[in-house]
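FW: tagging you since you asked about this chain on Friday. Here's the raw sequence from the shared folder, copied in full. Didn't touch anything.
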Amino acid sequence: MSLIMKQAITGPAVWKGADMVGDTTWVHVLSPEVLATLDAALAHVKSKGLTFPNFGREDFPIGVWAQALKTHSDELENGRGFLVLRGLPVERYTEEDIQIIYYGIGLHMGVPVRQNPKGDLLGLVMNVGDVTKKTTRVYETNLYLPYHSDPSDVVGLLCIRKAKQGGLSSLVSVAAIYNEILQKSP
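HL: got it, structure written out here
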């Protein structure tokens, strides 16, 4: 029995960029109520004297928004595989606050995993690395980062400060790529 799939993949995970033109159903703007919930959860973590990453899901209570995050998680796992949460006013928070909020949201979506050999749970994507060292990760430089897959079920990006230039992110549907290969070069 072969472990190689030989049937085309179907469903919402199969998409092309042209399919997304004019479609904004994958963009979710955080409402004032959700922002208030996040502020309250941040205050709760801080009132307990906790800091990133030394708190759990129960320490970051988000009330009814937890159901929306479950729906978002289902979209990531069983839907098109991506979404955008927009509208977190990062300018009003310290970097420590942002870490708590971002990590807290993530705790409601799954189990955190280490990102690199250093054990980072949140990695900073910024040009701070030495390109001459083998231990420097490409996301720590201003070098081009080609399409790749990360070894986790969900990857999140949060822009705190827009790059002066570059810094654009793009996505592809692995299912659509698979179908293309299956059709053209099985």
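FW: The first helix runs from residue 17 to 20.
HL: agreed, and The helical segments are 17-20, 32-47, 65-78, 95-107, 174-184.
FW: great, closing this out.
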